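Researcher: Quick sanity check before group meeting.
Model: Go ahead. Protein one:
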Amino acid sequence: MDVSAQVVLTPTESKRLLSKAVLALDEVQRALSDGILAIHPSSTTIFMLEELGLELPEEGIWVCGHISPKGLCISRKMIDAVLETPEYGAARYPFDLILRKGKLLPFAESSLGPILEEMTSDDVYVKSVNAMDPDGKLGVLLAARGSGGSVGLVIKTQKQKKFKMIIPVGLEKKIPIPLHTAQKAAIKTVKAQGIPCGLWQLRGTVITEIEAFKQLFDIEAFPVSAGGIEGAEGSVVWVLQGKEENVEKAYKLCEEIHGAQLPYRLEVYECSQCRNTLCDLAGAKGKVMKV
């Protein structure tokens, strides 16, 4: 007999759930065992590293571009790495977390271009996104609106190499308009709270909380409301439905991940000291916008 249970997941708790589901995929397990698993660093995918019992390399970066209270920003460590690496470019992008046969490569060996050329249809690239439209189309915020930066390189190479693209995304990233409408609006930006960004579409195997609960517990998950206060902003209320034993297991996991926090502290420049010339707040005092 089917039963139902109700749970609340904050965006961070969902990120941990999604990481477990991605790692449980057969194609990801095969890549971990015999091939290459490339993980684009983000607040969603960093939990995959933790789930595997691996630590971020000292030179590694766990989040790149992000949305924070001050606006659209880039982590301090990434800004420093880009400015201090004269040969930096999309092909030399050194920030992905690369596992070859389950072993995390040293930072010096993780340049994106050579790794992508090595990848085959048996390998997997994991990247989260910033937007999901009503039709399930996915968008990535990019400061490099023309070239697409590292994301453009991944998309181009994936078409040739046919490696698998896995995209974990929490439903808090849903937008209520078509992606193409959002893209047109974003490209017209002339100033921003932070870095003016465009949107690029990304295609692949999508893993939301709905697919995650199905993958891990073979149950249905229904988002019935969203929002929150006191740290629960962006949360989603879920009804879990299925066989009693499976629902109980899912409920127990939700209790285990309750209160999940990001494993690393976000380090960003004070706007007045920031060296990122792409940002409208760089060099400003406080949060004063440039006009």
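Researcher: Fine. The other one?
Model: Protein two, sequence then structure:
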Amino acid sequence: DVRDVICFALENEGYQVSQFENGEQALNYLTGLEHHDYPSLIIVDNQMPTMDGLTFISKVRTEHASSVGKIPLALSTASGTLDEKALPAGIIKLNKPMNLDDLIALAGKYCS
């Protein structure tokens, strides 16, 4: 439900959104993209089925370092459950419950 709300909010602002039920589906999607089709921002939840958000980020950064591994990544996590010091460098932390205005501002920063 939260994913649907996030997607609706971003689509309502005119952003093109692709959503996936789990990290494996998202990785498979990213692997098949051509450079000109790469997303401008990836928002991932820390608690996903099949792999958590930190594992997803690690796989993107290691297995796809020269391609999609350069895309800005935001990790959505419940407030206080993950110390920002535990995040890999350069990862944007989105606290839940998420403020939709902050989310839209984040998209505005990375998605033109």
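Researcher: One line on it for the slide.
Model: The CA atoms of residues 23 and 56 lie 6 Å apart.
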